[in-house]
Amino acid sequence: QVQLVESGGGLVQAGGSLRLSCVASGRTFSSYTMGWFRQAPGKEREFVAAISGSGGATYVADSVKGRFTVSRGNAKNTVYLQMNNLKPEDTAVYYCAADGAPWGSRGRERSDPASYNRWGQGTQVTVSS
């Protein structure tokens, strides 16, 4: 079973950039659909972005479209979230998640946390104004 470890979070000023990484264990990483979610204090977990196993398909939330980019390097068992032009409202704990079902599987809504069955421990992103 895949295990996920996020890194790259930190404190950044508004307008700055960060790149989050999520490294997965296991030898079948390229078969996993991967997602990024975030959760701010007192709020529900929110979808940020998702990417297919091959990296050929992506889906980004409207709230971050044009600022955040999701990518993956299957040779390194890693998925990335490049975050540019950060805003204070982006402050949250960011989680990566994995789903063994292929992209486009029936009943697997990629923006729904319930579609993912493996989660990392999260990394804190704080954006100061």
Account of the protein in words:
- The protein is an all-beta fold and 129 residues long.
- Helix content is 0%, strand content 46%.
- The chain has strands at 4-7, 10-13, 18-24, 33-39, 46-51, 58-60, 68-73, 78-83, 92-99, 118-119, 123-128.
- Strands 2, 4, 5, 6, 9, 10 and 11 form a seven-stranded mixed β-sheet that branches.
Task: Classify the secondary structure makeup into a structural class.
Answer: mainly beta
The main β sheet shows up as: 7 strands, mixed
**Tally of helical segments:** 0
Give the overall form: globular
Strand content: over 45%
N-to-C order of helices and strands: EEEEEEEEEEE
- Helical content, roughly? under 10%
Strands, count: 11
In the predicted model, the low-confidence regions spanning at least 5 consecutive residues are none
Quick overview of this protein structure:
This protein is mainly beta and 129 residues long. It has strands at residues 4-7, 10-13, 18-24, 33-39, 46-51, 58-60, 68-73, 78-83, 92-99, 118-119, 123-128.
Main features:
about 130 residues; mainly beta; seven-stranded mixed β-sheet; four-stranded antiparallel β-sheet; 11 strands; globular
SSE layout and pairing:
Elements: E1 4-7, E2 10-13, E3 18-24, E4 33-39, E5 46-51, E6 58-60, E7 68-73, E8 78-83, E9 92-99, E10 118-119, E11 123-128
Parallel strand pairs: 2-11
Antiparallel strand pairs: 1-3, 3-8, 4-5, 4-9, 5-6, 7-8, 9-10, 9-11
